[in-house]
Amino acid sequence: MPSGVPDARGLKFLSYKKMPRDTSIKKILLIGSGPIVIGQGCEFDYSGVQACKALQEEGYTVVLVNSNPATIMTDPEFAARTYVEPITAEIVERIIEKEKPDALLPTLGGQTALNTAMELVRSGFLEKSGVKLIGANAEAIEKGEDRLLFKEAMIKIGLDMPHSGVAHTMDEGYAIAEEIGTYPLIIRPAYTLGGTGGGIAYNREDFNTIVRRGLDLSPVTEVLVEESLLGWKEYEMEVMRDRADNCVVICSIENFDAMGVHTGDSITVAPAQTLTDREYQHMRDASFAIIREVGVETGGSNIQFSVNPEDGRMIVIEMNPRVSRSSALASKATGFPIAKIAAKLAVGYTLDEIPNDITRETPASFEPSIDYCVVKIPRFTFEKFRDADATLTTQMKSVGEAMAIGRTFKEAMQKALRSLETGRAGLGADGKDGNPDISYIRERLATPNAERIFFIRLAFENGVELDEIYNLTGIDPWFLKNIEDLLVSEKELGTDLDSFDFRRAKRLGYSDQQLSYITGESLDDVRKKRKAAGVIPTYRLVDTCAAEFEAYTPYFYSTYGIENEARGGDKRKVMILGGGPNRIGQGIEFDYCCVHASFALKELGFETVMVNSNPETVSTDYDTSDKLYFEPLTLEDVLNIYEEETCWGVIVQFGGQTPLNLAADLERHGCNIIGTSPKSIEQAEDRKYFSALLDELGLKQAPAGTAVSPEEAVVIAGRIGYPVLVRPSFVLGGRAMMIVYTDEELEHYMQNAVDVSPSRPVLVDRFLEDATEVDVDCICDGETTVVGAIMEHIEEAGIHSGDSACVIPSFSLSEPMREQIAIAAKRLAIALEVRGLMNIQFAVKDEELYVIEVNPRASRTVPFVSKAIGVPLAKLAAKVMAGEKLVDLGFTETIMPTHYSVKEAVFPFSKFPGIDISLGPEMKSTGEVMGIDADLGMAYAKAQMAASSSLPLEGKIFISVKDRDKDTAVELAKEFSELGYEIYSTSGTASRFEAAGIKVTRLNKLAEGRPNVLDMIKNREIAMVINTPSGRIPRRDEVSIRSGALANRVPIMTTMRGATASVRSIRSLKAAELDVTPLQEYH
Predict the structure, then answer these.
(1) Distances (CA, A) of 257 to 232, 453, 479, 486, 581
(2) Closest CA to 185 of 161, 215, 165, 160
(3) In 3-state terms, the chain is what percent helix, strand and coil (to 5)?
(4) Is residue 945 a contact partner of residue 1051, using CB atoms and an 8 Å limit?
(5) What DSSP state is assigned to residue 549?
(6) Which of 166, 261, 899, 995 is deepest in the core (most CB within 10 A)?
(7) How far apart are CA 748 and CA 980, in angstroms?
């Protein structure tokens, strides 16, 4: 307990004597959250890492299971035993049998961990194995997650709930709807993440669709049907409780959007801005009553409330009896390490026994207090799914988020908007708003959408009154008034740069880019004149206590005040630029690299300065780097920090495309970019230079050209021949990449899909059909180059590398070809003067090697390769960038593993019903999983299992493929028949099978009548679907079949190579028992 001299208030917390933890526990199994999916992002990577560190610190043996290779949590040093295995009850049972842990901690791995743990509780396996659940008991989890039990608990303690009922069948659902009596109705499935399967039903047809989907997706076949609270205000309370019944509110969070938008898709603000003190205290008391009644004894919970703006009626919406998405936001907003504290509470400590790392004086029972405003804005990627409904509802659709801190809501909001990296410099004033007519503006205000905040500004500019905007949006007038105030201030600032009030503009959150647009002056001139006027940012600490105590952890945000709390230091400083908000194409893999860079440079004696705006990540944990700046990744913000810290160097190679886009300008402003130079990075992107380099090295590439107009593109395509692969230069994640087959398609692409300019040309390549694609990650120090791994893609060339399953080591390439690939990689690394990591994509066709592209930077496959070969490539690369040599670091030879590692992509298709799920050159996956085994088939089977697409060991298989795939399909169908499967097909494919002597059952095409394959899929009669797209514009039948299979959770293969790999896996599963092995035993 704390002891020492009382402070002015008579409270003692100056020194600590450690209380005994639970000594009956020696070994703890922690379940991770698996792949990054919409609704469950890398916030659980962050919480899991904190928990692993906290438990190891306390002397426990930590056993971890997590299928996600991209997270630093699954690096072998974070647990004694790390199982990169599928997170299923069956697999966890095998791990428990092997490891014999004393306890299982399920509250830090999101819904995945909680659901798996509850399955083990219900089956009696935990009790039989003598493993106790810690963090939350089974009764508390049931009460928090089960809609009916939670409702009964709230009624018992006198808290208001929406009029609702729990349904397990469609008939029960209709009865509840009848009883409530009015539409719209909100449907919330039990035990799902990110509101998956839920929605708003405005009529009986909607109701039928959403309830049916919700029942299907709920692991316990249960949905809550409740009265609509659309337009009510929504709040969240992040609460912690210990076994001595100490309760604290870590943070209150207010949703900018009214009820009806999932909290993960809403702009959120901390602390809550529009509650009176009395309302806040009422909500705080209710939160404590809820956590006590539900019975969460040790750890964090997230509780959501709704308040009627008309009469102040407060109701409870739901509770997560675990560390949640909002916990990461609350942790980063306050500096309070919720996951770390939750882990310590789980093993018996109480809040008053755990010191606060930031102040070192206050205990964790001291409620955080903040004297700034935090704004989180979600990041969407609807451009990847053009047919998806972009309306925001109760089912989450965002793939990431950015957070910003400011002294006021205005400042924090503008910083958050420019942190999103969607091309906006703040709230308007950047030339991107366009001139929509007033009826369109009103329409966009009334329907929740990703751009609505910009339409609020446009509405004010077009003279719409605040009351009308409130009636259309339901957004609290306080927030609307702040937006209106910005417009008023903007007009008052004027346009003359010489007499400009820079300080006022900066305190309102305006970026230099916005000021450049307002004044019509260049960005460099704005920066120069602002600095000449003495207006430079000051940096304030995030300290958990509103500056009441000294903060020891240097975690900063910028503002334009009087006091600057930034600290000096005598070590050489290296700034590491993070990747900003997660999005498709730039995810957690890059954060992994940034964290390794920080660890590596600290080992070399540098002071590390991390800059990032993503609250979900390990890089933005306060103890990852020596200093953390929670700031937008724009040229202005990065330069300000570089100058404040007088950095020796900056790393731009590890954060994906975001920092690379800043590299040339940073260098122009005198920043020392360590590692591969921006010039080399640009040369790899410069088509003419790169083609000449390949010729010089004697390497082939597919015939190609560079176009800056539709006419030029058509001429190039005519010269090199169709099909062609077209893409903009300088993109990540295959953004706007497409395979086109005709002049018309190419002209349409050039005119509509991309912004073409001489500085941003479009690349036109001959597409190598039926080639095998190969990825290579290598590391170079200027003298020595080592190939980390040669990854062979399972899907053929033409599928984005981020979406294709891939294997280490390669399984079908000849030994001479592997040697040729390694030599080509090494020669390219030396020619491009690489210092650090480089990724190369090759295509192999008819034993000829072609170079597709080279990226002299960290790639998304680095974490996967590192785990497959047992070498931390990102860590070594950071040391190389700082001047170390690979010889001295002891890594000079390629490691050839004796086991197979398979990476499989995970897709968000279930969030966008009805879209086509076939794959192409534009990346669509949100995350990845890894399967490891001595047998390739078993490794692939584990990867499918981890990606929630377990392969069936018996049943009926539907095969329908395009003409070019029919020969391969015949061989495939023979194999499936030999394995005992029944083959079903439609006329064209069936005729080929019959001609080859394969027994097949013919089915009607969808237009030919019923029953058809869709009926069989819906009736759960089909075990697996193999359906390859017939062309760039797929037939309607194909889309219906593929989306039908997805909706009914039937495994589906859309490539022949994927289907062939599945047969191999099924043979392995039938021939041997699935086994589990920790990473530490492979290396």
Answers:
(1) 9, 10, 10, 19, 20
(2) 165
(3) 40, 20, 40
(4) no
(5) S
(6) 261
(7) 47
Most confidently modeled range among 214-228, 412-426, 799-813 = 412-426
| Distance, C-alpha 693 to centroid of its chain | 36
Distances in Å between the alpha carbon of 111 and those of 39, 66, 213, 795? 9, 13, 18, 31
E strand or H helix at 97: helix 89-99
Q: Is the pLDDT of residue 1025 over 90?
A: yes
CA–CA dist 886, 889 (Å, integer): 5
Return the structure tokens found at 396: 């989450």
Q: Where are the beta strands (DSSP E) in 632-723?
A: 649-651, 704-707
Residue 768 half-sphere exposure, CB side, CA atoms within 13 Å?
23
- Whether the pLDDT of residue 969 is over 70: the answer is yes
Phi-psi region of 1015 (alpha: psi -120 to 50; beta: other; left: phi over 0): alpha
3-state secondary structure 145-203: HCHHHHHHHHHHCCCCCCCEEEECCHHHHHHHHHHHCCCCEEEEECCCCCCCCCEEECC
- The token pair that represents 837 in the structure block: 């990591």
Q: Is the pLDDT of residue 7 over 80?
A: no
Per DSSP, the three-state class of 2 is strand
**What distance in Å separates the CA atoms of residue 524 and residue 121, rounded to the nearest whole number?**
62
> What count of other Cβ atoms lies within 10 Å of the Cβ of residue 707?
20
**Which of 194, 150, 188 shows the shortest CA–CA distance to 296?**
150
Q: Give residue 858's pLDDT band: very low, low, confident or very high (50, 70, 90).
A: very high
791-822 residue pLDDT tens: 999 987 778 888 889 999 999 999 999 999 99
pLDDT for residue 551: 67
Q: How far apart are the C-alpha atoms of 717 and 695, rounded to whole Å? A: 21
Q: What predicted TM-score, i.e. pTM, was given to this entire model?
A: 0.91
Short-list 470, 149, 173, 187, CA closest to 309 = 470
Which residue do the tokens 């076939």 mark?
918
Task: Answer for the pair 402, 379: CB distance below 8 angstroms, yes or no.
Answer: yes
- Report DSSP letters for 110-154, one per residue: HHHHHHHHHHHHHTTHHHHHTPEE-SS-HHHHHHHH-HHHHHHHH
Q: Are 480 and 262 in contact (CB under 8 A)?
A: no
Which tokens hold the place of 899?
């086991």
Q: How many CA atoms lie within 13 A of 660 on its CB side?
A: 23
- pLDDT one-digit tens code per residue, 717-751: 888 888 888 887 655 545 667 788 888 888 888 87
End-to-end CA distance of the chain: 43
Interatomic CA distance for residues 327 and 42, integer angstroms? 12
Phi then psi dihedrals of residue 56, to 5 deg: -70, -35
DSSP structural state of residue 400: E
Going through 462-581 in order, the beta strands assigned E by DSSP cover 538-541, 555-559, 573-577
The SS3 assignment for 751 reads: helix
Nearest to 342 by CA among 28, 614, 102: 28
